[in-house]
Amino acid sequence: MRINLLGPVEVVRDGVSHPVTGLRRKAVLAVLALRRGEVVGVERLVDSVWAGGAPSTVANSLQQHVSQLRQLLGDRGAIVARSPGYLLPVDAADTDVAAAERLIRAAGTSTDPAERAGLLRSALALWRGASLADVATLPWLDDQARRLDELRLRARRDLAAAEQATGNDAALLPELADLAAAHPFDEQLHARLILALYRAGRQADALHAYQRLRERLRGELGIDPSPPLRELETAILRQDSALAARPAPPPDTAPARSHATRVPAQLPAAVPAFTGRDLELHELGSAAEDTGDATVVIVAVSGSGGVGKTALAVHWAQRAAPRFPDGQLYADLRGFAPEGSAADPGEVVRGFLDAFGVPASSVPAGPAAQTALYRSLVAGRRVLVVLDNARDAAQVRPLLPGAPGCMVVVTSRNLLTPLIAGEGARPVPLGPLTAEEASALLARRLGAARTAAEPAAVAEIVACCARLPLPLVVVAAQAATRPALTLTTLAAQLRERRGDLGAFDAGDDSTDVSAVFSWSYRRLTEPAARLFRLLGLHPGPDAGVTTAAALCGASPAATRRLLAELAEASLISETVTDRFTMHDLLRVYATARAVEHDEAADRLAAQRRLLEHLLHSVQACARVQYGAWQSLDLPPAAEDLPVERFGDPTAANVWYRAEQRVLIAAIGLAAGVPGLEGYAWRLAWSQSLIMEAHALWRDAVTVQRIGLDAATRTGDRIGCAHAEHGLGMAYSWMGRDADALRHLDRAAWEFAALGDRWHHAQVCFGIGLVHDRRGEDAEARDQSMRALELYREIGDRRGQAIALGNIGWSMAKLGDLEPALAACRESLEAHQELGDVQGIAGSWDSLGLVHQRSGRLGDATTCYRAAVELWGRIENDFQRAATLTRLGDVHAAAGEDDEARACWELSLTILDELEHADAEAVRGRLAPVPIHTASRIDG
């Protein structure tokens, strides 16, 4: 299967084209395909697809588009829901963009002009018109279309160069004429056209083409053709024999006019088996296109140790060297060298002067004068300067040329923010390779046959190496030197040594991952170094500012400054605003440093602060949404412990979505640390209702089991009761009724034995909901009545209101409609007095069922619509889908088929997204003959 973007958006399955309908649906597919292999956040998707004009129902629209795209792609796994958004896996579908980039990349590495031309022709054949032709009206996709069209133009230019190198000028003329007409000021293209005309025996036409270009440049831009073009005209006039032997040098590869005695060529050898980095290479190439502007072009490549900054810079520089015919300079600034001091800029300048062949007697005294001479030498020339491993902007500034035409590529572990702000450097941040790129790197190092034979082992090796080039090449070297070693065995060895960076040591500091990380770590201030170490103990995939503050015991403002220092050093990265992460190998390094430098008591105290922060914060999150329903009796948080506070349910949900994976991982952390086990069941219980609302049912089972195991080990009866309750509810959400009742019965017995009537009543609700799902309406009613008795005994009004609503629901299903109506109305009034949105929504839902069973379809419609609106407001998609199903049933009973179908389709979209079993019942309603039922999904 292939997704085509180089033209109108389409899907090709089994050789058959399937057009994608609807602008938004096409745009969703295009964004996911362009970011294939990456999780695209919902906010980014919405911004890219709706461009600031998203409707209030955008979440539902997005879900529906994804569901329909899955059907079009013919595979539910083609688009994966993964927090915080969606993922189009690399192995789910190829794209014509990826295919074109592979072909163009292969052409760039070929030394055979004929082979290069063939690869480029194959790449260009993939374009079916303008890139992203039918979605480029959207700003983000328009930017991507421009990028792809620029890639196409560069491929056409490279094809012209390859064809010319084979002497195929005559056949090339139509293509060159079209290109030159489309780009009237591109001197390089016009130079190729003029040369092709001359070689085809059309000397007069060649000179006429030159004269037209000269007149256009003078008339519209007020400039003359560049010296290389003028030299080409002169060569044609004198019929220079060299023109027949090789292509005329285009403007950016013309011989240098230098006052120096040598043209420097200092670039190191290209990195063998360089793989991937297409986007970054494109950004470097785009920057190089601007070297004719009024300023020096500077690119700052930043990233953590081992991420491949030098490899990228050198690989690109080697390819781009012909663009800079006046020389290529290179210096290792040793900004993070394992030993010795960083390079002195004055010494580097003197090295550059020597590279240009400036005699020692002509080198002036003093760094300022030497820098001035260096800048004079490169002024008016096209020189590429690669400054590798820079410490900071101050080390770089004396080495910058002063006149346009030159390009500087700086690599550093620091972000070089001052260079970006002061000198206009273009940032190119470098992260880990994609899984596809990392696998390709291993294939190029070890041979495609060897890696193709063990794809699962390759995937595990890639994961163990955190997709970082340095550990990947170290492991590849180990495999290459031991050909009898299977990759499966190697992967198992890495798995066994997970947490030990010694597995990634090839014998010297430059190939020892731990040593490479240390060069950045040792330059941190002590507070930042301590935070870095403690972040290794953080259990989640990323950390917010407040969470990091709790971990290190500092204020959020001070912690923000420390995080900025770590980010500047590329030891962490800011994934979204105010959320920071580090890759797995840096986490291993940070943890090892914590064990080495921090006392065990200090590490335990940091973990306790973190868990306290998360527990109090998630309690506040649950309280703003569900009142006291999930509250626990906790001692007050310490005054200096930051705790999140929320003004409304929306803010609470935003926070929970950001911290969701952290909260889940924290439960495992607590269960495994002696003395912290009590946090496991408390954190699991505190977020159980939130997890239901967010459809995290499988995760809920996992964390409740962890909490139950921890409470059982420590003999915590209260913890066991809550964990049994939470586990029972999690199973009930998944429809595993027998498992649910087993755990809920244990919880009811335990709470009764403890004399805890409030939580006992809550468990009765859970048991009643399971019976309701099973169609055992009398048993469900009896459980709700038992809960009502308990809540009346302790005077809990909210519990009574919920019990009355559930009683009314069960009575309606049993046919006791008048008492059911009275109970539901009393429940609604109580919830409205309490201001409980969740309870109000449930009461409207129950009232809707009573009216539906009574045949009052108009009243039922009004009630269900009120419930749907409230479920949406508190973002409870599961309950919203359940009520939408019943609302569709009412419309169907009233003969309103279109309205019924709309409700069922939206419900089905939500349930499919949640992967809930109730989706099949709704799908049955959408069959040609609708099946009308009125079963309660949510309880």
UniProtKB/TrEMBL annotation:
<keyword id="KW-0804">Transcription</keyword>
<dbReference type="Pfam" id="PF13424">
    <property type="entry name" value="TPR_12"/>
</dbReference>
<comment type="similarity">
    <text>Belongs to the AfsR/DnrI/RedD regulatory family.</text>
</comment>
<dbReference type="InterPro" id="IPR011990">
    <property type="entry name" value="TPR-like_helical_dom_sf"/>
</dbReference>
<dbReference type="InterPro" id="IPR027417">
    <property type="entry name" value="P-loop_NTPase"/>
</dbReference>
<dbReference type="InterPro" id="IPR019734">
    <property type="entry name" value="TPR_rpt"/>
</dbReference>
<keyword id="KW-0238">DNA-binding</keyword>
<keyword id="KW-0805">Transcription regulation</keyword>
<feature type="DNA-binding region" description="OmpR/PhoB-type">
    <location>
        <begin position="1"/>
        <end position="90"/>
    </location>
</feature>
<dbReference type="Pfam" id="PF00486">
    <property type="entry name" value="Trans_reg_C"/>
</dbReference>
<dbReference type="InterPro" id="IPR016032">
    <property type="entry name" value="Sig_transdc_resp-reg_C-effctor"/>
</dbReference>
<feature type="domain" description="OmpR/PhoB-type">
    <location>
        <begin position="1"/>
        <end position="90"/>
    </location>
</feature>
<protein>
    <submittedName>
        <fullName>DNA-binding transcriptional activator of the SARP family</fullName>
    </submittedName>
</protein>
<dbReference type="InterPro" id="IPR005158">
    <property type="entry name" value="BTAD"/>
</dbReference>
<dbReference type="GO" id="GO:0003677">
    <property type="term" value="F:DNA binding"/>
</dbReference>
<dbReference type="InterPro" id="IPR036388">
    <property type="entry name" value="WH-like_DNA-bd_sf"/>
</dbReference>
<dbReference type="GO" id="GO:0006355">
    <property type="term" value="P:regulation of DNA-templated transcription"/>
</dbReference>
<dbReference type="InterPro" id="IPR051677">
    <property type="entry name" value="AfsR-DnrI-RedD_regulator"/>
</dbReference>
<dbReference type="GO" id="GO:0000160">
    <property type="term" value="P:phosphorelay signal transduction system"/>
</dbReference>
<dbReference type="Pfam" id="PF03704">
    <property type="entry name" value="BTAD"/>
</dbReference>
<dbReference type="InterPro" id="IPR001867">
    <property type="entry name" value="OmpR/PhoB-type_DNA-bd"/>
</dbReference>
